[in-house]
Amino acid sequence: KLLQTTGIAGAALLIGKASSYAMPIDGFPAERNPEYVLDRALTSEQDATTYTNFYEFGSSKNIWRKARKLNTDPWVVTIDGLIDNPIKIDASDLVKKLGGMEERLYRHRCVEAWSMAVPWAGFSLSNLVKFASPKPKAKYLRMETFFEPDVAPGQRQSWYPWPYVEGLTINEARNELAFLAVGLYGKALQNQNGAPIRLVTPWKYGFKSIKSIKRFTFTSERPRSFWEVLSPKEYGFWANVNPWVPHPRWPQDKERVLGGGMVPTKLFNGYEKEVAYLYKDKYTDNKRELFY
Ligand code: MTE
User: Which residue CA neighbors atom 8 of ligand 1 most closely?
Assistant: First the structure.
Protein backbone atom coordinates (compact mmCIF):
# COMPACT_ATOMS: atom_id res chain seq x y z
CA LYS A 1 0.00 0.00 0.00
CA LEU A 2 2.80 2.37 0.98
CA LEU A 3 4.67 1.66 -2.25
CA GLN A 4 1.54 2.32 -4.25
CA THR A 5 0.93 5.69 -2.67
CA THR A 6 4.44 7.02 -2.24
CA GLY A 7 6.53 5.09 -4.77
CA ILE A 8 9.80 3.39 -3.89
CA ALA A 9 11.69 6.60 -3.19
CA GLY A 10 9.04 7.73 -0.71
CA ALA A 11 9.05 4.39 1.08
CA ALA A 12 12.84 4.41 1.32
CA LEU A 13 12.66 7.87 2.80
CA LEU A 14 10.20 6.69 5.48
CA ILE A 15 12.23 3.58 6.29
CA GLY A 16 15.40 5.65 6.38
CA LYS A 17 13.81 7.99 8.88
CA ALA A 18 12.47 5.20 11.08
CA SER A 19 15.82 3.42 11.29
CA SER A 20 17.71 6.58 12.08
CA TYR A 21 16.01 7.20 15.44
CA ALA A 22 18.49 7.21 18.27
CA MET A 23 18.15 7.87 21.96
CA PRO A 24 19.79 11.11 23.11
CA ILE A 25 22.94 10.68 25.18
CA ASP A 26 21.96 10.57 28.85
CA GLY A 27 23.54 9.92 32.25
CA PHE A 28 23.98 13.55 33.35
CA PRO A 29 25.19 14.73 35.73
CA ALA A 30 27.98 12.13 35.77
CA GLU A 31 29.80 11.34 38.99
CA ARG A 32 32.91 13.49 39.46
CA ASN A 33 36.25 11.67 39.41
CA PRO A 34 38.08 13.15 42.47
CA GLU A 35 41.52 12.50 40.94
CA TYR A 36 41.25 15.55 38.70
CA VAL A 37 41.62 18.71 40.75
CA LEU A 38 42.12 22.30 39.64
CA ASP A 39 44.50 25.01 40.83
CA ARG A 40 42.00 27.74 39.95
CA ALA A 41 38.30 28.56 39.96
CA LEU A 42 35.93 26.98 37.44
CA THR A 43 35.15 29.22 34.47
CA SER A 44 31.54 30.40 34.41
CA GLU A 45 29.22 28.29 32.28
CA GLN A 46 28.20 31.46 30.46
CA ASP A 47 31.80 32.24 29.41
CA ALA A 48 32.65 28.66 28.42
CA THR A 49 29.55 28.27 26.28
CA THR A 50 29.51 31.65 24.54
CA TYR A 51 33.24 32.30 23.91
CA THR A 52 34.09 29.39 21.64
CA ASN A 53 36.25 28.49 18.65
CA PHE A 54 34.38 26.52 15.99
CA TYR A 55 35.57 27.66 12.56
CA GLU A 56 32.92 25.59 10.80
CA PHE A 57 30.51 28.30 11.98
CA GLY A 58 32.80 31.31 11.51
CA SER A 59 36.05 32.73 12.80
CA SER A 60 34.59 34.87 15.59
CA LYS A 61 34.18 33.59 19.16
CA ASN A 62 30.49 34.42 19.10
CA ILE A 63 29.10 31.56 16.98
CA TRP A 64 26.95 29.75 19.55
CA ARG A 65 23.65 30.74 17.93
CA LYS A 66 24.84 29.73 14.45
CA ALA A 67 26.00 26.34 15.74
CA ARG A 68 22.45 25.48 16.85
CA LYS A 69 21.64 24.63 13.23
CA LEU A 70 23.75 21.48 13.32
CA ASN A 71 21.63 18.36 13.84
CA THR A 72 23.50 16.09 16.27
CA ASP A 73 20.86 13.41 16.87
CA PRO A 74 21.15 10.93 15.21
CA TRP A 75 24.95 11.13 14.85
CA VAL A 76 26.60 8.15 13.20
CA VAL A 77 30.25 7.68 14.12
CA THR A 78 32.55 5.51 11.98
CA ILE A 79 35.44 3.61 13.56
CA ASP A 80 37.71 2.15 10.88
CA GLY A 81 41.24 1.78 9.53
CA LEU A 82 43.71 -0.78 10.89
CA ILE A 83 41.21 -2.73 12.99
CA ASP A 84 39.49 -6.09 12.47
CA ASN A 85 35.90 -4.94 12.82
CA PRO A 86 35.16 -1.46 11.45
CA ILE A 87 31.77 -0.20 12.62
CA LYS A 88 29.28 2.60 12.24
CA ILE A 89 27.51 3.36 15.49
CA ASP A 90 25.31 6.15 16.81
CA ALA A 91 27.09 8.37 19.35
CA SER A 92 24.53 7.46 22.07
CA ASP A 93 25.14 3.71 21.56
CA LEU A 94 28.90 4.28 21.55
CA VAL A 95 28.64 6.00 24.94
CA LYS A 96 26.61 3.06 26.31
CA LYS A 97 29.11 0.54 24.94
CA LEU A 98 32.18 2.31 26.24
CA GLY A 99 30.51 3.02 29.57
CA GLY A 100 32.09 4.53 32.64
CA MET A 101 30.76 8.09 32.20
CA GLU A 102 32.48 10.39 34.65
CA GLU A 103 33.04 14.09 35.24
CA ARG A 104 36.56 15.54 35.19
CA LEU A 105 37.71 19.07 35.97
CA TYR A 106 40.31 20.01 33.37
CA ARG A 107 42.24 23.14 32.46
CA HIS A 108 42.06 24.07 28.78
CA ARG A 109 44.67 26.32 27.15
CA CYS A 110 44.08 27.75 23.69
CA VAL A 111 47.08 28.50 21.46
CA GLU A 112 45.70 32.07 21.30
CA ALA A 113 46.78 32.46 24.97
CA TRP A 114 43.42 32.37 26.75
CA SER A 115 42.38 29.58 29.05
CA MET A 116 39.49 28.15 31.01
CA ALA A 117 38.80 25.42 33.55
CA VAL A 118 35.64 23.37 33.08
CA PRO A 119 33.82 20.17 34.17
CA TRP A 120 33.68 17.79 31.18
CA ALA A 121 31.59 14.60 31.28
CA GLY A 122 32.54 11.62 29.18
CA PHE A 123 34.96 8.73 29.18
CA SER A 124 38.59 8.00 28.58
CA LEU A 125 39.62 7.81 24.91
CA SER A 126 41.57 4.67 25.88
CA ASN A 127 38.19 2.88 26.22
CA LEU A 128 37.57 3.50 22.52
CA VAL A 129 41.07 2.30 21.63
CA LYS A 130 40.51 -0.91 23.64
CA PHE A 131 37.12 -1.41 22.04
CA ALA A 132 38.51 -0.96 18.50
CA SER A 133 41.54 -3.15 19.29
CA PRO A 134 43.89 -1.68 16.65
CA LYS A 135 46.46 -3.85 14.86
CA PRO A 136 50.14 -3.40 15.83
CA LYS A 137 50.74 -1.45 12.59
CA ALA A 138 48.36 1.30 13.79
CA LYS A 139 50.62 4.06 15.11
CA TYR A 140 48.16 6.98 14.99
CA LEU A 141 44.52 7.77 15.58
CA ARG A 142 43.07 10.19 13.02
CA MET A 143 39.85 12.03 13.90
CA GLU A 144 37.61 13.89 11.49
CA THR A 145 34.53 16.03 11.96
CA PHE A 146 31.45 16.59 9.77
CA PHE A 147 31.27 18.33 6.39
CA GLU A 148 27.92 20.10 6.00
CA PRO A 149 28.46 23.40 4.17
CA ASP A 150 24.67 23.91 4.05
CA VAL A 151 24.47 24.34 7.81
CA ALA A 152 28.04 25.39 8.62
CA PRO A 153 28.81 28.65 6.77
CA GLY A 154 32.56 28.47 7.50
CA GLN A 155 32.70 25.32 5.39
CA ARG A 156 31.69 27.35 2.35
CA GLN A 157 35.04 29.13 2.67
CA SER A 158 36.99 26.94 0.31
CA TRP A 159 40.48 28.09 1.37
CA TYR A 160 40.15 26.00 4.55
CA PRO A 161 41.04 22.29 4.25
CA TRP A 162 37.66 20.93 5.44
CA PRO A 163 36.71 18.77 7.16
CA TYR A 164 38.56 19.58 10.40
CA VAL A 165 41.05 16.77 11.10
CA GLU A 166 43.19 16.05 14.13
CA GLY A 167 45.47 13.22 15.16
CA LEU A 168 47.26 11.68 18.11
CA THR A 169 49.87 8.96 18.35
CA ILE A 170 48.38 5.69 19.52
CA ASN A 171 50.27 6.06 22.82
CA GLU A 172 48.82 9.53 23.36
CA ALA A 173 45.36 8.14 22.60
CA ARG A 174 45.94 5.44 25.24
CA ASN A 175 47.00 8.00 27.87
CA GLU A 176 44.42 8.21 30.66
CA LEU A 177 44.08 12.01 30.34
CA ALA A 178 42.87 11.88 26.71
CA PHE A 179 39.12 12.20 27.09
CA LEU A 180 36.05 11.96 24.88
CA ALA A 181 33.58 14.52 26.20
CA VAL A 182 29.83 14.31 25.67
CA GLY A 183 28.82 16.71 28.45
CA LEU A 184 29.76 19.98 30.13
CA TYR A 185 28.47 21.51 33.41
CA GLY A 186 26.34 18.45 34.19
CA LYS A 187 24.45 18.49 30.87
CA ALA A 188 24.87 17.17 27.35
CA LEU A 189 27.34 19.26 25.31
CA GLN A 190 25.85 22.20 23.49
CA ASN A 191 26.63 22.34 19.78
CA GLN A 192 29.11 25.20 20.07
CA ASN A 193 31.27 23.11 22.44
CA GLY A 194 31.39 20.14 20.06
CA ALA A 195 28.19 18.11 20.48
CA PRO A 196 27.59 15.28 20.54
CA ILE A 197 31.16 14.01 21.07
CA ARG A 198 34.56 15.74 21.08
CA LEU A 199 38.13 15.15 22.09
CA VAL A 200 39.74 16.86 25.11
CA THR A 201 43.55 16.67 25.45
CA PRO A 202 44.26 19.17 28.27
CA TRP A 203 48.08 18.98 27.98
CA LYS A 204 47.94 20.17 24.37
CA TYR A 205 46.78 23.47 22.90
CA GLY A 206 43.01 23.57 22.44
CA PHE A 207 43.07 23.19 18.65
CA LYS A 208 43.95 19.50 19.10
CA SER A 209 40.62 18.99 20.93
CA ILE A 210 38.54 18.36 17.81
CA LYS A 211 34.79 18.96 18.14
CA SER A 212 31.81 16.99 16.79
CA ILE A 213 33.77 13.90 15.71
CA LYS A 214 32.30 11.72 12.95
CA ARG A 215 35.16 9.36 12.27
CA PHE A 216 38.00 7.65 14.14
CA THR A 217 40.57 5.98 11.85
CA PHE A 218 43.52 3.91 13.06
CA THR A 219 46.42 4.41 10.67
CA SER A 220 50.15 3.85 10.20
CA GLU A 221 50.67 7.35 8.82
CA ARG A 222 50.84 10.56 10.80
CA PRO A 223 47.67 12.53 10.01
CA ARG A 224 48.01 16.12 8.85
CA SER A 225 45.88 18.29 11.13
CA PHE A 226 43.61 21.08 9.86
CA TRP A 227 45.76 23.87 11.33
CA GLU A 228 49.01 22.13 10.42
CA VAL A 229 47.94 22.10 6.74
CA LEU A 230 47.07 25.80 6.94
CA SER A 231 50.20 26.99 8.74
CA PRO A 232 52.74 24.35 9.84
CA LYS A 233 55.14 26.90 11.37
CA GLU A 234 52.41 28.17 13.69
CA TYR A 235 50.51 24.99 14.57
CA GLY A 236 52.62 21.88 15.09
CA PHE A 237 51.39 18.30 15.12
CA TRP A 238 52.53 17.78 18.73
CA ALA A 239 51.14 21.07 20.03
CA ASN A 240 52.08 20.36 23.62
CA VAL A 241 51.51 23.44 25.78
CA ASN A 242 54.97 24.93 26.13
CA PRO A 243 55.71 28.33 27.70
CA TRP A 244 59.26 28.34 26.23
CA VAL A 245 58.23 28.18 22.59
CA PRO A 246 56.54 31.41 21.50
CA HIS A 247 54.02 31.32 18.71
CA PRO A 248 55.63 33.17 15.76
CA ARG A 249 53.24 36.07 16.42
CA TRP A 250 52.90 36.17 20.24
CA PRO A 251 54.50 34.83 23.44
CA GLN A 252 53.14 31.69 25.18
CA ASP A 253 54.53 32.14 28.69
CA LYS A 254 51.34 33.68 30.12
CA GLU A 255 47.64 33.16 29.59
CA ARG A 256 44.46 35.17 30.10
CA VAL A 257 42.07 33.16 32.25
CA LEU A 258 38.49 33.72 31.02
CA GLY A 259 36.76 35.79 33.70
CA GLY A 260 40.06 36.22 35.59
CA GLY A 261 43.53 37.74 35.24
CA MET A 262 46.83 36.70 33.70
CA VAL A 263 48.66 33.61 35.05
CA PRO A 264 51.93 31.93 34.02
CA THR A 265 51.53 29.03 31.55
CA LYS A 266 52.97 25.70 32.66
CA LEU A 267 54.72 23.04 30.57
CA PHE A 268 52.10 20.54 29.36
CA ASN A 269 49.55 22.91 30.89
CA GLY A 270 50.48 21.53 34.32
CA TYR A 271 49.96 17.86 33.36
CA GLU A 272 53.67 17.00 33.17
CA LYS A 273 53.40 14.16 35.71
CA GLU A 274 50.74 12.42 33.62
CA VAL A 275 52.23 12.82 30.12
CA ALA A 276 55.97 13.64 30.17
CA TYR A 277 56.90 9.95 29.62
CA LEU A 278 55.32 10.17 26.15
CA TYR A 279 57.92 12.72 25.02
CA LYS A 280 61.14 11.54 26.73
CA ASP A 281 62.99 11.40 23.39
CA LYS A 282 61.81 14.90 22.46
CA TYR A 283 63.23 16.89 25.40
CA THR A 284 65.88 19.27 24.10
CA ASP A 285 67.43 22.35 25.65
CA ASN A 286 64.85 24.75 24.35
CA LYS A 287 62.05 22.14 24.37
CA ARG A 288 61.02 23.29 20.90
CA GLU A 289 60.34 19.82 19.63
CA LEU A 290 57.63 19.33 22.21
CA PHE A 291 55.54 21.72 20.16
CA TYR A 292 56.44 21.07 16.50
N1 MTE B 1 37.02 21.57 16.45
C2 MTE B 1 36.43 21.87 15.26
N3 MTE B 1 35.77 20.92 14.62
N4 MTE B 1 36.51 23.13 14.75
C5 MTE B 1 37.21 24.13 15.37
O6 MTE B 1 37.28 25.26 14.85
N7 MTE B 1 38.57 24.78 17.30
C8 MTE B 1 39.57 24.27 18.25
C9 MTE B 1 39.02 23.14 19.12
N10 MTE B 1 38.26 22.20 18.33
C11 MTE B 1 37.83 23.83 16.61
C12 MTE B 1 37.69 22.52 17.13
C13 MTE B 1 40.13 25.32 19.08
S14 MTE B 1 41.17 26.43 18.32
C15 MTE B 1 39.90 25.37 20.43
S16 MTE B 1 40.72 26.48 21.43
C17 MTE B 1 38.90 24.51 21.07
O18 MTE B 1 38.20 23.70 20.13
C19 MTE B 1 37.91 25.37 21.80
O20 MTE B 1 37.00 24.59 22.52
P21 MTE B 1 35.80 25.36 23.26
O22 MTE B 1 35.24 26.33 22.25
O23 MTE B 1 34.82 24.30 23.67
O24 MTE B 1 36.42 26.08 24.41
Answer: 207
